[in-house]
Amino acid sequence: MPTTLNNIAKQGANGAAMMPVIQGVGRAAIEIAAVLRGAVFRGALGGAGSENVQGEQQQMLDVLSDEIFLDEMRSTGFVCAVGSEEQEELLVIEEYSHADYLVLVDPLDGSSNLDVDGPVGTIFSVVKRKTPNSDTPHVSDTLQSGKEVIAAGYVLYGPSLMMVCSVGDGVHGYTFNPGSARFELSHGDIRIPETGGYYSVNESNKDKWLDGMGDHLDRMKADTGLGMRYVGAMVADMHRTLLKGGVFLYPADEKNTTGKLRLLYEAIPMGFIMEQAGGKAMSSGIAVLDIEPEALHQRVPVYLGSHTNVDSLLG
């Protein structure tokens, strides 16, 4: 019999508690994938005519994916609140405000790829609340370092629908099987190759990077011989890096002096996955998982990959 998401319940100390939440992520992913497949026929491509809290133009599918994800987290009965990249404030699930867990999500990473039928994804992490269960969940519950993350993962909407996740006991990939209508284990115990692979970055911004990262990249390329691959959706670029090796980087630049990627919605969950797969996740002189968050939408520079390649880049 194929191994399904039920296998998560057997993994580590947190697997049983996290299985209902991750199954909820799976249901959201299936629904989002269906919306993506039919978006062109429903007139759902293009801008939503609104901006998110970061001042970025929202796509209609950003909004729809956000709604789908919130609904599925509510349906688990185990999630008291959701922090979303698309929402300015923490969304409390009133009927389950006593529940133990909060989920942080980028519901549709890489949505600028949608108009050209490029890959997109969902990124998520789970933390346990700090406030008493009798209180209303508070934004302070989300401001926990990556060391406090219980589970994290991403969904890739590509030629196949795939979820990669960890509950702190390694990294495993599950691919949706249309025949059985369920996610089945396809990539067990993923470990990033220590050498080889590719570097992934928007190199056109190289002359605007801060902290001498342009020179660092040139040196790394000379030292490692890595070629470049870049999709422009963090999930797709991270997935390739995880399976093939190399390094993904998004440095700070003159426009985004504190970095572009969000600590809670992108850097921490992907850093958690990378470390669980035997890799390294760094920001500005500090491990991503050691950063103490100060705000719901905080941004940081990000460098993710194998120890060999990250050290070559930052050394």
From TrEMBL:
Q: Which UniProt keywords apply?
A: Carbohydrate metabolism, Cytoplasm, Hydrolase, Magnesium, Metal-binding
- Fructose-1-6-bisphosphatase class I N-terminal domain span: 18-187
Instruction: Give the catalytic activity.
Output: beta-D-fructose 1,6-bisphosphate + H2O = beta-D-fructose 6-phosphate + phosphate
Pathways involved: Carbohydrate biosynthesis; Calvin cycle
On cofactor binding, the record's note says: Binds 2 magnesium ions per subunit.
Listed Gene3D superfamilies? 3.40.190.80, Fructose-1,6-Bisphosphatase, subunit A, domain 1
Which biological processes are named by the entry's GO terms?
Answer: fructose 1,6-bisphosphate metabolic process; fructose 6-phosphate metabolic process; fructose metabolic process; gluconeogenesis; sucrose biosynthetic process
Regarding protein family, the annotation reads: Belongs to the FBPase class 1 family.
Name of the protein in question: Fructose-1,6-bisphosphatase class 1
Q: What is the lineage of its organism?
A: Bacteria, Pseudomonadati, Pseudomonadota, Candidatius Mariprofundia, Mariprofundales
Q: Which gene encodes it?
A: fbp
